[in-house]
Request: fold
Amino acid sequence: MRLLLNDTVPGAASPGDVLDASALERLYAYPDRPWLRANMVATLDGAAAGNDGRTGSINTPADQVVYTLLRDLADVVLVGAGTARVEGYRHTRPRTRDLLARAAAEGRAAHPELAVVSGTGQVPPLLADRPEDGGGVLLVTCEAAGAEALDRARHILGEDRVLVCGGQGVDLPAAVAALSGRGLPRILCEGGPRLLADVAAADLLDELCLTVVPLLAGGLEQRIAVGTVADRALVPGVVIESEGTLLQRWLRSGS
Reply:
């Protein structure tokens, strides 16, 4: 991996440097305050998934490295229920060894939590079990899901793991505040595109980590953000290149 731009983390590395794991971690470190970053991948023509409908078909090795690192650095992964079902989300795995030791020293959990946003209160089937070695699952939902769905979700996940935020729809600012209140201030949003647009429109997005892969996909796949109008300006902070893959950090202006 080769650094092309660094306007965000002084001293971490300089443009032209080949990055080792330590430098990469410094370039993606969270600030010392609550922070919501999103991580998305797109093709050269803007598709948010391959023509099979899954992001896995457009991932590259460099994207996978940063994907793993961002999860290791986060306290909680925020994802829409539809994306969790389509992509086959499972419980998060333990952090890498070095970051696991650091998390323990900081009083953080061995695994990042997984927070699933569902207006209907549905828990994706692959997340309904409780493995011995895996991160916990939180459901972020709203009153409109109905008492039956909420009771079922509480039975599956546990009474305290269902966060009812909002009446007729999920109140994302309240959800982010609830996650921070549970000691999970480092939030990583993995989409999908509708959730990302909603997060940006609610002015909750501090940072977008965008991987652009060297592939022209064609087809009819949607962009990385769709639905709600957001119109949020971001500025480039970090750009890394690896075998044609561009790994970028885009930050809220003034952050």
Q: What stands out?
A: The chain is about 25% helix and 25% strand. The longest helix spans residues 61-73. The domain at 32-228 is CATH 3.40.430.10 (Dihydrofolate Reductase, subunit A).
